[in-house]
Amino acid sequence: MPDSSPLAKDWHSSVCPHDCPSVCALEIEKLSESRIGKVRGAAANDYTAGVICAKVARYAERQHHPGRLSVPLRRIGSKGCGPEGFAPISWDEALDETAAKLKAAAAKFGPETVWPYFYAGTMGLVQRDGIDRLRNVMGYSRQYSTICITLADAGWLAGAGAKRGTDAREIAKSDLIVVWGGNPVSTQVNVMTHIARAKKTRGAKLVVVDPYRTGTAQQADLHLMVKPGTDAALALGVMHVLFAEGFADRDYMAQYTRGAAALEAHVADKTPEWAESICGVPAATIREFARLYGGTKRAYLRLGYGFARHRNGSSSMHAASCLPAITGAWRHEGGGALYAQSAIYALDKTLIQGLDRLDTRVRELDQSRIGPVLTGDKRDLGDGPPVTALFIQNTNPMNVAPELAKVRAGFLRDDLFVCVHEQFLTETARMADIVLPATTFLEHDDIYQAGGHTYLQVARKVVEPYAQAKSNHWVHCELAKRLGAEHRGFAMTEWDIVDWTLKASGYPSADEVHAGRWHDRAPSFEKAHFLEGFGHEDGKFHFDADWAKLGPAWEAMPSLPTQMTNYDAATDDKPFRLVAAPARTFLNSTFTETPGSQEREQRPTAMIHPAALAKLGIADGARVRLGNEKGSLVVHAKAFDGVLPGTVVVESIWPNAAFEEGIGINLLTSADPGFPAGGAVFHDTAIWLKPA
Ligand SMILES: Nc1nc2c(c(=O)[nH]1)N[C@H]1C(S)=C(S)[C@@H](COP(=O)(O)OP(=O)(O)OC[C@H]3O[C@@H](n4cnc5c(=O)[nH]c(N)nc54)[C@H](O)[C@@H]3O)O[C@H]1N2
Ligand SMILES: Nc1nc2c(c(=O)[nH]1)N[C@H]1C(S)=C(S)[C@@H](COP(=O)(O)OP(=O)(O)OC[C@H]3O[C@@H](n4cnc5c(=O)[nH]c(N)nc54)[C@H](O)[C@@H]3O)O[C@H]1N2
Ligand code: SF4
Ligand SMILES: [Mo]
Description:
Layout: E1 11-15, E2 25-30, E3 36-41, H1 54-57, H2 59-63, E4 73-75, E5 86-88, H3 91-109, E6 114-118, H4 125-129, H5 131-138, E7 142-144, H6 150-160, E8 176-180, H7 184-187, H8 190-202, E9 205-209, H9 215-218, E10 222-224, H10 231-244, H11 250-256, E11 257-258, H12 260-267, H13 272-279, H14 283-294, E12 299-303, H15 313-321, H16 323-327, E13 336-338, H17 350-353, E14 364-366, H18 370-374, H19 378-381, E15 389-393, H20 397-400, H21 404-411, E16 417-422, E17 434-437, E18 446-448, E19 455-459, H22 472-483, H23 494-504, H24 510-516, E20 519-520, H25 525-528, E21 541-542, E22 576-579, H26 595-601, E23 605-608, H27 610-616, E24 623-628, E25 631-639, E26 647-650, E27 685-691
Parallel strand pairs: 6-15, 7-14, 8-9, 8-12, 9-10, 11-21, 12-13, 15-16, 16-17, 22-26, 23-25
Antiparallel strand pairs: 1-2, 2-3, 4-5, 4-17, 18-19, 19-20, 22-27, 23-26, 24-25, 24-27
Helix pairs in contact: 3-22, 5-22, 6-15, 10-13, 10-14, 10-15, 13-14
The structure holds ligand MGD (2 copies), iron/sulfur cluster and molybdenum atom (MO).
Residues 19, 148 line the site of molybdenum atom (MO).
């Protein structure tokens, strides 16, 4: 295990808390009890390897931003107003009023009328998930978290059966890296560090599968510019070549997989020409890629989330994940695949989430359907009560949730009480009756696991909380007191909870992990490569998926990998497919407030193929209107030949206020759940374009 070197005076170790698979080990320069200076990646951590993204390197901009919330606020203006519509109040007043409103709502409609709503503004487990302890003790509505990983999870689990894979540090030993449906240059920069090593030391090749020429695709030897939502067709075309041209490892398949013979028969007619007709990648390029992949033992498949954000995204993920199980790349160092490592941590979250008080009879509401939920959709509420009180931490649904028109209409309801605990006056906070100021990760303690690597990390606060900012945990405890919620977790400090959790999970103590800065949970080579068996009971990789075990909407899903047609396909009326991919210097809607990020991203922009622009008579840089049945909005067009003529890319997530008509890109995205287990379908949107 690489050991940490002691840090120079005035430098403190920390962990990036943002919702990013890299979970970088950070070093923070402390200028005083209240100020930080530089932020850098820990060079001694062999995953972070001293590299972090530009937005977090400039963290002082965010930490000391004049827009940080300093005191609790009560809204005196109308919903959605600016700072002038809020008046400062004391913490006691704010908490008393919030508790009183939650109690009154529950008295009228029962506890399920209250919906504690959260996501991963911080990935620290205590500050992020502690809200569940309050929820579970109070019997408030549960949250089915679908906004990010649900589709990708189901697809990966269908094949491999366990959410782990080849250690990312092995990328440096690969001869071929395939980044499929992710854009690490923007979203997870450290992957590029390890790819660069493989390129430099072994001449490794990089292949990227993405609908547009992203920063990652620019660095690729081969870019497969796929039509959005058609990755299964592409994967099937590749599989056809692997079987037809002798790249299938039959011994490996016999020992480690289920359904190989059926798969081989199934792909016999899925020629690259067939695949091209659906996914738009030329058949010759599909053959070239398949031969390169099939001919390389050390082939590392890095599967992103992006290509799963479609109604058929789970089946696309399953299809792509079949490749190393056909060639047996799993056997080799630097070979195999990684989607996420979450399963290696096995932390006991009973105390953090109050799982000892979980009642599964309490209704569960779909996070991504907050728009329909708040506007009273019976598909979500059934015979249950309306949601009349929201307590929100760590998320900004007024920007990030689909079907924004409904989200906005819901938040504007007069009978809805909203409390938002935030670092900034986000567009969600502007809808709140009570706003509470939150600490940043530099001002509180927490514990972090990672999707992209194998380190568990803990971090202690580096500076004192800004003004009256308080941690999420503190707010949970204070609300618990006022609501009469009893649980030992509400009487413990963050650090005590971290320590209990680590010990209960068989780890060293919190202090020990902190002294070592990180703790590597990497399993053995055999385990990581599933050479001791895959995660299913039979120990096999499943080419024929048991979708019924993964989600309720499984009946539409054939068990063998299939290009499902249940996505929002282009039509004559809506001839374009919109991809609302992440912007490099925003992180979801976080960092939209920092000057460095604003300067780089400029303004909401639609990247459109020059031929498509010419056909529509729209000039490069002109205003263009994008729309579908949910509404329309205006952005500026940018002629870009790194995208197919039928695909439009708007990097996101800009605040609503950045758009001419005051509503952002998720106006156009759908809250339909993906198959089979739900999940938001952010890149699965057919639209029309017009000159504006
Ligand atoms: N800078 C920055 N970093 C981020 C984020 C951010 O917003 N900005 N968000 C963070 C979060 S919450 C997450 S979950 C991760 C996500 O990180 P990623 O795994 O990279 O996933 P996405 O961001 O959803 O999308 C990435 C890519 O998927 C592509 N894509 C969309 N549809 C398809 C398709 O049908 N097929 C294929 N092959 N590709 C497709 C998009 O064009 C985009 O380039 O990133 C995290 N890091
Ligand atoms: N169009 C489009 N929409 C998308 C996506 C996309 O690719 N395209 N990606 C989707 C994905 S993958 C995700 S994960 C979601 C993410 O959506 P969100 O989870 O809403 O992410 P952010 O917009 O970053 O908002 C997080 C908020 O948490 C706050 N915060 C940070 N730390 C703390 C803390 O310690 N305490 C409190 N109380 N608050 C804190 C931040 O200030 C910030 O306002 O967005 C989804 N929406
Ligand atoms: S790459 Fe991701 S984890 Fe690393 S500093 Fe940037 S946002 Fe944080
Ligand atoms: Mo996400």
